Amino acid sequence: MHILVVNDDGPPSKRLSPYIHPFVSALQDAGHLVSVAIPAASRSWIGKAHLIEASLKATYVPPDAFRNDGTWDEHHNSSETKQPQSEWVVIRNGTPASCVQLGLFNLFNDRPPVDLVISGPNHGRNASTVYNLSSGTVGGALEAATCSKRAIAISFGSKDPQPDEIIRAAARHAVKVVNYLYEHWHDSVELYNLNVPMRKDVESRPVRWTEALPYYWPRGCMYAEAAGEQKMVNGHTETNGEAVNGTSGSHLKEIDFTWAAELSEMKKTLQSSPEGTDAHTVLNGDTSVTALRANFWHVPNLEGPIDLDG
């Protein structure tokens, strides 16, 4: 099977993207042809967005040229790579969705058609509706589904450093689940969201069908005000609204915000989630498989003319 792998965590990195290298190796060990197209930087929380004003540059990088900090050796001699067709593609200004588009239609035309798109493994779980709608990992799978490709989003359920033994076990287990889902694909399913717990005995634990836990933000908890930083506003370089380099400051009110997700309330909700949901399942040590369709479907039974004066 020819599998396209994308992610939202970017190139291999001990801190941000520790799971993709072992997972790709596990897919190859299972006999699959694997093509990899990943963004050059972390794109977490980006959903299935495209950066339409950004130019994309695809760089073919041998897997052994990657360092463990998200960078790679640009002077690596690709002729030293032992396995044919083993280069990964890193896409500057890429997102999971653009990696899917380029991976399916532009980058690997010398290979057979892609049978399955896998987005992940994400560094941390993606359980509940709010994650499904925000996650770049799920977004990559959604993009593949809109391209009429079978797709699976995979998340390894921990952001804490993990021993190599546990990572390899999770990778082997995920590949086994992927093989099963592909061979038993349900006609009504467009993508699966797979959450794998990070534990030594994961391969002997149950795999369960689950529902997505409904979740809504109870308050503004994603951004926080930040101290002013030097920036361009209307063509002028300014800091905290004061004049810089002889240029008069802006008289318009400005507030700077930085990403500062405060997820304590969400974590409490996930920990108390009911049995049968994705969050409850993975938090209790089992593998969660949620079958999804890639659409915002209309609410039924609302039809006919609307009387605005009634």
UniProtKB/TrEMBL annotation:
GO terms for cellular component: P-body. GO terms for molecular function: hydrolase activity. InterPro entries: SurE-like_Pase/nucleotidase (IPR002828), SurE-like_sf (IPR036523), TTL (IPR027746). Residues 3-213 form the Survival protein SurE-like phosphatase/nucleotidase domain. Pfam families: SurE. This is Survival protein sure-like phosphatase/nucleotidase. The lineage of its organism: Eukaryota, Fungi, Dikarya, Ascomycota, Pezizomycotina.
